[in-house]
TrEMBL record:
<keyword id="KW-0489">Methyltransferase</keyword>
<dbReference type="GO" id="GO:0030187">
    <property type="term" value="P:melatonin biosynthetic process"/>
</dbReference>
<dbReference type="GO" id="GO:0032259">
    <property type="term" value="P:methylation"/>
</dbReference>
<dbReference type="InterPro" id="IPR036390">
    <property type="entry name" value="WH_DNA-bd_sf"/>
</dbReference>
<feature type="domain" description="O-methyltransferase dimerisation">
    <location>
        <begin position="12"/>
        <end position="92"/>
    </location>
</feature>
<keyword id="KW-0471">Melatonin biosynthesis</keyword>
<comment type="pathway">
    <text>Aromatic compound metabolism; melatonin biosynthesis; melatonin from serotonin: step 1/2.</text>
</comment>
<dbReference type="InterPro" id="IPR029063">
    <property type="entry name" value="SAM-dependent_MTases_sf"/>
</dbReference>
<feature type="domain" description="O-methyltransferase C-terminal">
    <location>
        <begin position="115"/>
        <end position="324"/>
    </location>
</feature>
<dbReference type="InterPro" id="IPR012967">
    <property type="entry name" value="COMT_dimerisation"/>
</dbReference>
<dbReference type="Pfam" id="PF08100">
    <property type="entry name" value="Dimerisation"/>
</dbReference>
<dbReference type="InterPro" id="IPR016461">
    <property type="entry name" value="COMT-like"/>
</dbReference>
<feature type="active site" description="Proton acceptor">
    <location>
        <position position="253"/>
    </location>
</feature>
<keyword id="KW-0949">S-adenosyl-L-methionine</keyword>
<dbReference type="InterPro" id="IPR036388">
    <property type="entry name" value="WH-like_DNA-bd_sf"/>
</dbReference>
<keyword id="KW-0808">Transferase</keyword>
<protein>
    <recommendedName>
        <fullName>Acetylserotonin O-methyltransferase</fullName>
        <ecNumber>2.1.1.4</ecNumber>
    </recommendedName>
</protein>
Length: 343
């Protein structure tokens, strides 16, 4: 309207975006959602239960109400009682099968600290483990798994997303002709579980670094999952298990184009004729205009890895360079997409 002052709504929103993230991190870390699960509570009761100041917790709770993570109702005595929303009960409770708590913890304790050095990462074009954690990142996964605790936290981060959108990527193509599947860098086995559940004739071998395999066997995949087995190794140095299909979920985004082609070429050699490779990645639009999440993830790859997020055409180029043909792309409409290519 004429005469109206310009109002930078979006810029203000972006400037303050981290306040929202930190509110969520804090409420999870303090155990707000856990405590409210199944019962409502006043700010003073919560303050007592969680060992917090009453004023502090009240501000936090009211902010969570504004973010639609909690609801507030006033009882007959005029006391405000807070309770979880349906969304918080489903995603912000540790015992929920769709819990995002471990991802939130990793975002808060690791990713957030790396992002403090985003400007340095952009200037230098490399990850920031040295500054953020004082560790050398010459070997990327040595830096990422700088302690057993950090490795388990990372595995939980990897695990949680596939409970939410694993089925979409694994059923993007009919994988039933591929009976013997290798989930390369299969980590906690969450996608392998989705795979054996969607394709009852298939067996999946999770190939990963030795300590990841051992942790996965101990803490993530039960002996009941009879169609899932494990193989320890280093995919760049060791022989790969023979398979009809190699699943590479969020693997190539860790590495440069050169290392990606090196790995794909090695897979091509081990792959049975008629077999293939399924890439699962967050695809960028061809004109680079989004999606915003994938662009942000690409910045995160800069801060945390040696790789990047890529466009479908970039993956086609890498796959073709390694010898694969019949490349098909499937956009799921969620964060992660799927690309199938054949030998
Ligand atoms: C970003 S995570 C992806 C995990 C899993 N595919 C997923 O999407 O949840 C990368 C995985 O590659 C594994 N990895 C890294 N370097 C490896 C290597 N040299 N050989 C085998 N696995 C490796 C890591 O341990 C980790 O499990």
């Amino acid at each position: 309207m004429a005469g109206e002052e310009p109002y930078p709504r979006k810029i203000l929103q972006y400037m303050e975006g981290f306040l929202v993230s930190k509110t969520l991190f804090c409420a999870c870390e303090l155990g707000v959602f856990e405590h409210l699960q199944g019962s409502q509570s006043s700010a003073s009761d919560l303050a007592l239960a969680l060992g917090c100041s009453e004023d502090g917790i009240e501000r936090l709770l009211n902010t969570c109400v504004s973010l639609e993570l909690l609801t507030a109702n006033t009882d007959a005595h005029g006391t405000v009682l807070y309770s979880n929303t349906e969304m918080s009960s489903m995603f912000l409770i540790k015992s929920s099968p769709r819990s995002l708590c471990q991802s939130i913890e990793y975002s808060s304790r690791t990713i957030y600290l790396c992002w403090h050095y985003l400007s340095d990462a952009v200037r230098e074009g490399k990850n920031q483990y040295e500054k953020a954690f004082g560790v050398n990142s010459k070997d990327l996964f040595e830096a990422m798994y700088r302690s057993d605790e950090e490795m388990v936290k990372f595995m939980h981060l990897m695990n949680s997303i596939w409970n939410i959108c694993g089925r979409d990527v694994i059923t993007a193509f009919d994988l039933s002709p591929f009976r013997c599947i290798c989930d390369l860098g299969g980590c906690s086995g969450a996608l392998a579980k989705q795979c054996v559940s969607a394709f009852p004739e298939s067996t999946v071998t999770i190939f990963d670094l030795p300590k990841v395999v051992r942790t996965s066997q101990q803490h993530f995949v039960s002996n009941q999952d009879e169609r899932i087995c494990f193989c320890e190794g280093d995919c760049f140095k060791d022989e790969l298990p023979q398979a009809d299909l190699y699943v590479l979920a969020r693997i190539l985004h860790d590495w440069t184009d050169q290392r990606s082609v090196e790995l794909l070429a090695k897979i091509y050699q081990s792959c049975r004729p008629g077999g293939g490779v399924l890439l699962v990645e967050a695809l960028l639009y061809e004109d680079n205009s989004g999606p915003l999440t994938a662009q942000l993830y690409s910045l995160n790859m800069l801060v945390q890895t040696e790789g990047r997020e890529r466009k479908a055409s970039d993956f086609s180029r890498l796959l073709s360079a390694a010898g694969f043909t019949h490349i098909q792309i499937h956009n799921t409409g969620k964060i992660y997409d799927a690309i199938l290519a054949l030998k």
